[in-house]
């Protein structure tokens, strides 16, 4: 099995502060990690749930993938992150199974991880992020 855990469920939001406040009030959740990823044009807040996260993510610039998602589809589920031991091996296995990569090779992600995105058109409509810690 290449997948080791669900790393995170990413939710695209317009207002990161409002989303954090909602999750704090509704679930008692607390921000475990917060980071701006300039290369992706996003700011994220990770709320820990057991060994996984809810990733609230907002755009920091109008050309970011999150901004485009919000404009086209509105707020809500953006992608799911699967934790793997070897991002390149997982990516190769997915491509061999017919997946369409967005990233041509694994790259640095938040929290010091290595990540690669897989296009939803090759993954039954789900944007997938492979996450190697």
From TrEMBL:
Keywords for this protein? Metal-binding
The VOC domain sits at 5-133
Q: Which SUPFAM superfamilies match?
A: Glyoxalase/Bleomycin resistance protein/Dihydroxybiphenyl dioxygenase
| Keyword Metal-binding in record | yes
InterPro entries according to UniProt:
Glyas_Bleomycin-R_OHBP_Dase, MeMalonyl-CoA_epimerase, MMCE/EMCE_epimerase, VOC_core
The Gene Ontology biological process terms listed for this entry are:
L-methylmalonyl-CoA metabolic process
The record's GO molecular-function terms, alphabetically, read: metal ion binding; methylmalonyl-CoA epimerase activity
- Transmembrane regions: none
Which is an annotated Pfam family here?
Glyoxalase_4
Q: Which family does it belong to?
A: Belongs to the methylmalonyl-CoA epimerase family.
This one is known as VOC domain-containing protein
